[in-house]
Amino acid sequence: xxxxxxxxxxxxxxxxxxxxxxxxxxxxxxxxxxxxxxxxxxxxxxxxxxxxxxxxxxxxxxxxxxxxxxxxxxxxxxxxxxxxxxxxxxxxxxxxxxxxxxxxxxxxxxxxxxxxxxxxxxxxxxxxxxxxxxxxxxxxxxxxxxxxxxxxxxxxxxxxxxxxxxxxxxxxxxxxxxxxxxxxxxxxxxxxxxxxxxxxxxxxxxxxxxxxxxxxxxxxxxxxxxxxxxxxxxxxxxxxxxxxxxxxxxxxxxxxxxxxxxxxxxxxxxxxxxxxxxxxxxxxxxxxxxxxxxxxxxxxxxxxxxxxxx
Length: 310
Known about the structure:
Helix content: 25-40%
Radius of gyration: 19 Å
Number of helices: 10
Oligomer: single chain
Order of helices and strands: HHEHHHHEHEEEHEHEHEE
CATH topology: Rossmann fold
CATH architecture: 3-Layer(aba) Sandwich
Distance between the termini: 25 Å
Number of strands: 9
Strand content: 5-15%
Number of domains: 1
CATH superfamily: Thiamin diphosphate (ThDP)-binding fold, Pyr/PP domains
């Protein structure tokens, strides 16, 4: 078990807010990245590409894992839903990992402008995770390989701990489902520890996901049949998440349940890609986007003079 301090909870919550803001800014903005004046149509990118729906959940999982395993040099994180790339990029940016391979991604106002303006932009950053992202080994449009990759990394490396986030739509692929059998093949002490986390947000693109429509009992029994111990995390409370990680149950399989698109103007299937289609031409949508961005109170988390205050 782990005791979760107030400071730890606040740090996790602040990081999630910061990365959520950066995700939205990457998808929508080509200027005025810190909202230093009211949003205008000209601040919006002429073509909007990206996938918001899964990103908040990715940020929650990443922030909690980073907090819990921050003292472990042999911890790795694998992201299954590579279409949530703006969330991955936001976290790599905040951790200054992106700057190690791209000196323009500095942890300041200039760096924020750079990553946001160039997301889903010609000669910039793609909408999905790609091989030139630090640590990415497969293209993010191909769902299903994350768990198999995690077991491959753990093979013969007992010192490693690998957490892998799997989308609920992703688990419907044959590769992901069959990869659950790998737990039976890598049971020796010479192999590393795998921490699978199912992101149960209810939808794949615009259709309900199968696993989100199963009862808890059905899903629990499915995972137990593969030899896992299911542990549920419902909602985004950092204390619940940290406590669940602190159980350190043998063969744990975490099920993190939240709403797709949480925090945005639309939820569920409407949030999969870009939840506001015309903020460049529609005044009401522009106001909605500005309210959405302001809801994260990014000015409390970053200043041009002091940088990030996380």
